[in-house]
UniProtKB/TrEMBL annotation:
Organism, as annotated: Thermomonospora echinospora
Cofactor binding, per record: Binds 2 magnesium ions per subunit.
Keywords (A to Z) from UniProt: Hydrolase, Magnesium, Metal-binding
Name of protein: ADP-ribosylglycohydrolase
PANTHER family with a match to the protein in the record: ADP-RIBOSYLGLYCOHYDROLASE, ADP-RIBOSYLGLYCOHYDROLASE-RELATED
Cofactor dependency: Mg(2+)
Source domain of life: Bacteria
Region (Disordered): 219-249
Matching InterPro entries: ADP-ribosylglycohydrolase (IPR050792), Ribosyl_crysJ1 (IPR005502), Ribosyl_crysJ1_sf (IPR036705)
Pfam families named among the record's database cross-references: ADP_ribosyl_GH
Residues bound to Mg(2+): T53, D54, D55, D322, D324, S325
Length: 365
């Protein structure tokens, strides 16, 4: 398939639309959602302007840092890191940062603001979806090498989320966006992501991640699925108790993340084989509070409706999990695949931060 026209605009506006549509349902169960919005979830953006959450706000922070760094090639971690750090701190102090931001992001950004080196500021035991809800801009930039795209996707995650699964899921999310904008057929995407997991399983991007792998992480996180009692984007974190565990080498550290992503891709295959468009998308692929589940459930919503982007984000919004992040990622994938023209035209004038989204879209379309 040929590259998608206006893919960057479609992706960025799509993620904001999904974010806004899913925000009112984030802490509702399926019964409450159906009672309030009907079986298919919210039908229209809420309000004018339609307010987004920290998902879109932090996506804008990532995009701002990228855009600035790309004006001064070559693109390197030393170039983009201080820019991301500054924009994350700006987000921390923004008076509009009042949209139930994730505690992991808040803690890490406070540490960054205090001048702590990022490898110490990050939350080493967190793989929450804050790692990859904001990574789409890395997948939209043309002209990056695979090493640059992989390293940048992982680094923007690592500034706040130091768990290897958050890093791997962020890289997969960025490459899913990139491949879709470049014309990969949606049906081919799960296999491409699986192949990427195997190819990258022992690759540690030291140029981008420094010695992050040496830091202790909390064991047992891979076996725990976060619940609405401990969401990434609300009170609490998707964490596990236990004694700190250090990886013996960088390859072992990063392989853990890729293995957890491979496991959730198995669940995605199961959900796609079931192909139930009416079921809660979180039933098989997970509630999305953690990064690999947000990727898989966002992908599921998109792949169930590959030609109907509004249906995809409505499905994400009508879910029992982290609905704004799930719908946000579904919208990013749909927009990267289909472009800007597929979204309702009047939404562009109603969504919050439309000017910023349009500016990044023009830069990368």
């Amino acid at each position: 398939m040929p590259p998608t026209p206006q893919a960057a605009s479609g992706c960025l506006f799509g993620l904001a639309y999904g974010d806004a549509l899913g925000a009112p349902t984030e802490f509702l169960n399926m019964r409450q959602i159906r009672r309030r919005f009907g079986a298919d979830g919210p039908r229209d953006l809420p309000g004018t302007p339609a307010l987004v959450t920290d998902d879109t706000q932090m996506t804008i922070a990532v995009a701002e840092g990228l855009l600035s760094a790309l004006e001064h090639p070559p693109f390197t971690p030393d170039l983009v890191l201080p820019r991301w750090r500054r924009h994350f701190i700006d987000w921390l102090h923004d008076p509009d940062n009042n949209r139930a931001p994730g505690n992991t992001c808040l803690r890490a950004c406070r540490n960054l603001d205090a001048g702590t080196p990022w490898v110490e500021a990050t939350q080493h035991d967190s793989k929450g979806c804050g790692a990859n809800m904001r990574v789409a801009p890395v997948g939209l930039v043309p002209g990056l090498s695979d090493e640059q795209r992989s390293g940048a996707a992982q680094l923007q995650a690592a500034l706040t989320h130091g768990h290897p699964t958050g890093l791997a899921a962020s890289e997969l999310t960025a490459f899913a966006v990139w491949w879709l904008r470049e014309g990969t057929a949606p049906a081919d995407l799960p296999a491409a992501l699986r192949e990427h997991c195997h190819a990258q399983r022992a690759v540690y991007h030291e140029r981008w991640l420094e010695d992050l792998w040496r830091r202790p992480a909390v064991p047992g996180l891979s076996s725990r699925r976060a619940t609405p009692g401990s969401p990434e984007s609300g009170p609490g974190d998707p964490r596990s108790a236990g004694a700190p565990l250090r990886s013996p080498d960088p390859q072992t550290f990063i392989a853990r993340g890729w293995d957890e992503c491979l496991a959730v891709l198995d669940r995605l295959d199961e959900a796609l084989a079931r192909a139930d468009r009416d079921a809660d998308p979180c039933e098989i692929t997970g509630a999305g509070w953690v990064a690999e589940e947000a990727l898989a459930t966002g992908l599921l919503c998109f792949l169930l409706f590959p030609g109907d982007p509004v249906a995809a984000i409505r499905r994400g919004a009508a879910s029992s999990g982290d609905s704004d992040s799930i719908a946000c990622l579904a919208g990013a994938f749909a927009g990267a695949h289909l472009g800007m023209a597929v979204w309702p035209a009047e939404w562009a004038g109603r969504i919050e931060y439309a000017g910023d989204l349009a500016r990044f879209g023009r830069a990368w379309d």
